[in-house]
């Protein structure tokens, strides 16, 4: 039998195998470090090749330039020291003149200590400069030596064992250390920063139209008007997307206007015969049959109004910046004045963009629904992070969890009777959710801590 999770062939159950799994892990790792925004990802696309170019350039520089230059400088110093030792061997009586000439012409401060002997210890050589200098001394001088490079940028001290003395040579740092390294790094980093700044400016100009398009789409989704100066701009693909959005939004507005105009005509056509019926009933006098017919006519008027309100969805109203807390408090006060036991709590001043009449209808429907099934209503409003929430609670029987989503369906009533006085027209929650979604939010039904139903209205801040 094969091991759990791995087949006999060594491949994973997905069929990718070890190599495929490795690539998948690399892809997930890269995806996890990529920025989330388009601007950040675009900069990463520019920065990554730039960084790789710098790394390759630095590698080539240190592998070729630094090694070559340092080796040539080290061999030059070792050759001068070898020449000095040879001159001292040939002309031992002229050592002072030789050392003076070396200092003047070779920039080497050499001192001879007769009778001195270097310690018989193996010196540990580390670092590129010490390694190359030691190799050059072995090839050119071929005598025991000790290197002190503790302050190599200022000077390097070389102690060379001669036949009957120790020659101490102080080498200036500029003879072994090339400043071209720092110049190269400064130029490399400086040009990279300049290129990065220029790329950032260009990328920001390219991303700005996309951000404006995103804001326009978001505003349209919340029922607000896009920016007045919004127009297609930027790259060709961005302009095409913006133009398509403009056409789509105009078609949607045109359809809403046509639907509203049609429903206004239907409303007028339906109200006209109802008005004639009311006049005829008024002329019949106080007959019991006339009273029943009059109640039916009033009921029909209310049903028609609810149907038209649901179909219209308050689509023609403009969004304005208003105080949501004041709107909710005023609505609760009116219900309290009507004899409904309602407790309203608003957390500070909440100013946001709303369609006031539509949102008022939304909350009014929720309070009406709560007051119909409960004896006490609680209303709360406040900010929750990046959202605004309005909670409407009651202490009624609530709605079973499996029926809560169905409750938002048009004409759906928990009370199966067709009596509007007990079950309503079945449009209250539908109208409320339609209004909430027009504002870019939604309504969720939950269990209330007071034992009944909670309607949570969540809007974008």
UniProtKB/TrEMBL annotation:
Classification via CDD domains: HAMP (cd06225), HisKA (cd00082)
Histidine kinase domain ranges (all copies): 265-461
GO cellular component: plasma membrane
PROSITE patterns, A to Z: HAMP, HIS_KIN
Top-rank taxon, per record: Bacteria
Alphabetized Pfam families for the sequence: HAMP (PF00672), HATPase_c (PF02518), HisKA (PF00512)
Membrane topology (UniProt): Multi-pass membrane protein
Enzyme class: transferase
Transmembrane annotation, as ranges: 38-62, 182-203
UniProt keyword annotation of Metal-binding present: no
UniProt EC number: 2.7.13.3
Location relative to the cell: Cell inner membrane
Known catalytic reactions: ATP + protein L-histidine = ADP + protein N-phospho-L-histidine
Alphabetized SMART domains for the sequence: HAMP, HATPase_c, HisKA
This protein's name: histidine kinase
Native source organism of the sequence: Pacificispira spongiicola
């Amino acid at each position: 039998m094969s091991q759990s999770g791995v087949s006999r062939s060594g491949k994973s159950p997905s069929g990718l195998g070890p190599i495929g799994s490795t690539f998948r892990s690399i892809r997930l790792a890269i995806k996890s470090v990529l920025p989330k925004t388009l601007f950040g990802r675009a900069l990463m696309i520019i920065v990554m090749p730039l960084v790789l170019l710098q790394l390759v350039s630095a590698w080539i520089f240190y592998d070729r330039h630094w090694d070559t230059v340092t080796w040539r400088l080290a061999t030059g110093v070792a050759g001068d020291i070898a020449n000095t030792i040879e001159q001292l061997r040939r002309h031992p009586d002229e050592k002072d003149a030789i050392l003076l000439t070396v200092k003047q012409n070779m920039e080497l401060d050499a001192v001879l200590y007769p009778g001195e002997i270097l310690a018989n210890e193996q010196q540990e050589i580390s670092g590129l400069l010490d390694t190359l200098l030691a190799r050059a001394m072995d090839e050119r001088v071929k005598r025991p030596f000790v290197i002190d490079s503790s302050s190599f940028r200022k000077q390097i001290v070389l102690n060379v064992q001669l036949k009957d003395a120790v020659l101490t040579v102080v080498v200036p740092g500029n003879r072994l250390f090339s400043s071209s390294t720092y110049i190269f790094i400064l130029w490399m980093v400086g040009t990279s920063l300049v290129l990065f700044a220029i790329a950032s400016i260009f990328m920001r100009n390219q991303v700005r139209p996309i951000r404006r398009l995103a804001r326009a789409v978001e505003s349209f989704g919340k029922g607000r008007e896009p920016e007045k100066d919004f127009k297609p701009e930027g790259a060709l693909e961005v302009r095409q997307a913006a133009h398509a959005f403009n056409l789509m939004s105009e078609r949607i507005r045109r359809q809403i206007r046509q639907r509203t105009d049609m429903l206004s005509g239907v409303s007028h056509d339906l109200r006209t015969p109802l008005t004639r019926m009311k006049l005829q009933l008024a002329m019949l006098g106080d007959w019991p049959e006339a009273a029943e017919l009059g109640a039916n006519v009033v009921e029909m008027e209310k049903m028609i109004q609810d149907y038209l309100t649901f179909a219209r969805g308050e689509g023609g109203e403009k969004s304005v910046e208003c105080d949501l807390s004041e709107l909710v408090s005023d609505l609760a006060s009116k219900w309290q004045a009507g004899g409904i036991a309602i407790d309203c709590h608003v957390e500070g001043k909440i100013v946001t963009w709303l369609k006031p009449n539509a949102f008022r209808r939304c909350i009014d429907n929720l309070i009406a629904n709560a007051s119909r099934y409960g004896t006490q209503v609680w209303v709360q409003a406040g900010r929750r992070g990046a959202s605004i929430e309005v909670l409407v609670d009651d202490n009624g029987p609530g709605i079973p969890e499996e029926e809560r989503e169905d409750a938002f369906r048009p004409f759906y009533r928990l009370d199966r009777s067709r009596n509007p006085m007990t079950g309503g027209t079945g449009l209250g929650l539908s109208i409320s959710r339609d209004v909430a979604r027009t504002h870019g939010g939604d309504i969720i039904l939950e269990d209330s801590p007071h034992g009944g139903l909670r309607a949570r209205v969540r809007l974008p801040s």
